[in-house]
Design a protein that fits this description.
By secondary structure, the protein is an all-alpha fold. It contains eleven helices and no strands. Helices cover about 65% and strands about 0% of the residues.
């Protein structure tokens, strides 16, 4: 007679764990509000504690230092930015709007990135503005892992459909042996590591996209007026066309 396996049981978090998770989320929300109102450089444990009506000593039970709080906020912000980029790609896949029907998914992802940055300028500044004084992110910690998730999205939309051999043969200016060695040592973010020419193209694309967004978020392209979205889309289309043209056919 066969013995049926016992059904799996779900272990629910204890009341204490739920209360701690709720308090941690409340602290993170308060820190984000403080950043939105006063900017990243004004963030401190004392300011967050004051906004919650609690003591700094009580806050230490959840975040033992300012760096621990900053790391948690940065990781959470990267995750939300990645969520916005992925949501833009997912929505475009089922959207039949005439204007966007033939829009490449890489451009869709870039526009999702831009929209989030414009809607959350202070939190975008936390990620990419002036580094916080005396803060250093933990090596290969949660902030790095969250950032890699977003990198994987853009890598997929930029190089999806191309094989490793094609990417390795991409037409890029001659890379020095030192640069090739350095790029070859990059850890893979997906099933396979990108060959050095593809990494160089990815970094170049990232710089073009991110640079335009930074200029707009920090108010350096206001002279373009209401046409900034159109300029951005044109730049992303041209960039994608150039990169795709450098990758040989299968």
């Amino acid at each position: 007679m066969a013995v049926l396996p016992e059904p799996a049981t779900t272990v629910l978090p204890s009341l204490r764990e739920r209360r701690r998770a709720a308090a941690t989320q409340e602290i993170l929300d308060a820190a984000e509000r403080h950043i939105t109102e006063h900017g990243p450089q004004a963030l401190s444990l004392r300011a967050v504690a004051r906004g919650l009506g609690m003591t700094v000593q009580a806050l230490y039970h959840y975040f033992p230092s300012r760096d621990a709080l900053v790391t948690a906020i940065i990781a959470k912000t990267y995750e939300e930015l990645a969520d916005a980029v992925q949501a833009a790609v997912d929505s475009a896949a089922v959207d039949t709007a005439a204007d966007d029907r033939d829009l490449p998914s890489l451009v869709v992802a870039a526009e999702g990135y831009r929209r989030w940055a414009i809607a959350h300028p202070e939190r975008f500044q936390l990620l990419y503005g002036t580094p916080l004084r005396d803060y250093a992110a933990p090596v290969d910690g949660p902030t790095t892992q969250a950032m890699r998730r977003m990198s994987v999205i853009f890598q997929r939309e930029l190089f999806g459909g191309f094989g490793t051999a094609q990417l390795a043969a991409a037409d890029t200016p001659a890379l020095s042996s030192e640069l090739r060695t350095h790029l070859s040592a990059f850890p893979p973010d997906g099933p396979d590591a990108l060959p050095p020419p593809a990494i160089a193209l990815l970094l170049s694309a990232w710089g073009q996209m991110h640079g335009l967004v930074v200029l707009e978020v920090f108010g350096h392209t206001v002279f373009v007026g209401d046409h900034q979205a159109e300029i951005f889309r044109m730049a992303m289309r041209n960039m994608l066309q150039d990169i795709r043209g450098r990758i040989p056919a299968a």
